[in-house]
Automatic annotation (TrEMBL):
Annotated protein name in UniProt: ABC transporter permease
Places the protein is found: Cell membrane
GO cellular component: plasma membrane
Organism encoding this protein: Paenibacillus polymyxa
InterPro entries cross-referenced by the UniProt entry: ABC-2_transporter_component (IPR051449), ABC2_TM (IPR013525)
Length: 416
């Protein structure tokens, strides 16, 4: 019972009761705001209209009228539909074939192509369902009047019943292999977690060991201390992705050498954020406790498990503050979709600029801390070196003495 009372007293006087109650409430509120709907509405799609007729434009209007799809762009031709998935702006490409209106008027079948980004199955389910509903509706509108006619041959009858044939093509992960989704996500998460555990207490460790003031004589020393974390975390992540491809059969289409560039920026940027977040921690344990401020938001907003299309625009913008979100975007686009690095130059430039800003913030924080420690040292030195006030005082022997010094006796004159 003594152990129970002792632990009870410790917990009651700690912050744990508040944390245990408040954090679940924050999680409920946060996820409720992040996921206002359990389905993706108005997903951006590209329509390749090779027919460019009145009926094809009417068909596009029906696609756009669906609550699940938003026709964001219409093009007349493309020989590389995969390029529309590289920057994660679109979830599907719908191809309307040449002769669509002519086949419709002649009661012949037309094959409409539906190309889906299958890196996240959750994001395309509603699109597939909506296109199937549209094709069934079109077939019914065509077949009912046609079946009332007479003199139809077998080919026309088949075309009347199947006027629109939907051909679905799932790209990048057609078999829904867990190696390319769940296992890949948790592999990156564990690497991210280990990086946070080891880099968050960097400044606190220097403070506890009384070495922080010496390190801050050159503010760039903090950035130099980040390089070993960058080296080992980059090597570990690249090695784990290679093992997943070689032995697990996972998909990785990027050039491993070129893919190191965004991974290095991600690791260095993450360590910068960790240093800034945990700078004021008095002890390494306190610094590690702040991992919840980085790990969970970054992992959720990266789209590793939940499709980013589910999130409101504000949540997506907040996610861009976490380098892990950028890294996972590069992993999906270069690793799974096979995009060349040239296609990702805008994102790479943005990430490089962001990491540069984080580095300057670390230097500014180091300079501010250096100035703060210098003022504290000067204050302590002035307190220790100040002399005691000198006050004249009379001695018991009739002489004068200085307080804090031995008395000097006064001799009476010798009487003759």
């Amino acid at each position: 019972m003594k152990s129970l009372r002792d632990e009870w007293s410790y917990l009651v006087h700690s912050k744990y009761p508040i944390i245990a109650i408040i954090f679940p409430l924050i999680a409920v509120l946060g996820y409720s705001l992040l996921l206002p709907s359990s389905q993706i509405n108005d997903a951006n799609v590209v329509v390749v209209d090779q027919d460019n007729t009145a009926y094809s434009r009417e068909f596009i209007q029906k696609i756009d009228a669906s609550p699940y799809m938003n026709v964001a762009e219409i093009v007349s031709y493309t020989d590389n539909p995969e390029q529309y998935f590289y920057h994660e702006q679109y979830l599907a490409v719908i191809s309307l074939p040449h002769g669509l209106e002519d086949n419709h008027n002649r009661s012949l079948s037309s094959r409409v192509g539906l190309i889906l980004d299958n890196t996240n199955v959750q994001s395309i389910t509603s699109i597939r369902t909506a296109m199937q509903e549209i094709s069934v509706s079109e077939n019914m509108e065509l077949s009912v009047p046609a079946m009332l006619k007479t003199g139809m041959n077998a080919e026309q009858a088949q075309g009347a019943l199947n006027g629109i044939a939907l051909e679905v093509r799932s790209l990048f992960n057609p078999t829904n292999d867990y190696q390319n989704t769940t296992i890949l996500a948790f592999t990156c998460m564990f690497s991210f977690m280990i990086l946070n555990i080891n880099s968050l207490p960097l400044v606190a460790r220097l403070r506890v060991s009384k070495r922080l003031a010496a390190e801050l004589q050159n503010p760039f020393n903090i950035l130099l201390r980040m390089l070993p974390y960058t080296l080992f975390s980059t090597a570990g992540l690249i090695f784990s992705l290679g093992m997943l491809k070689v032995f697990g059969g996972g998909r990785f289409e990027a050039n491993p050498i070129l893919f190191i560039i965004p991974v290095v920026l991600y690791v260095f940027g993450t360590v910068c954020i960790n240093v800034l977040v945990a700078w004021g921690a008095a002890h390494p344990g306190i610094a590690i406790g702040r991992m919840v401020m980085i790990l969970m938001p970054a992992f959720v907003l990266s789209g590793a498990v939940l499709s980013r299309s589910l999130f409101p625009p504000l949540a997506i913008q907040i996610g861009d503050f976490f380098p892990f979100v950028w890294m996972y975007k590069f992993l999906r686009t270069m690793g799974l979709r096979g995009a060349p690095l040239q296609e990702m130059l805008p994102e790479l430039g943005s990430l490089l600029l962001y990491v540069g800003v984080l580095s300057m913030l670390v230097i500014a924080r180091a300079l501010w801390e250096k100035q703060k420690l210098a003022k504290q040292t000067a204050g302590n030195a002035s307190e220790k070196g100040s002399p005691h006030p000198v006050v004249p005082a009379s001695s018991t022997g009739g002489g004068l003495s200085m307080q804090g010094a031995p008395s000097a006796p006064m001799h009476e004159p010798i009487k003759g």
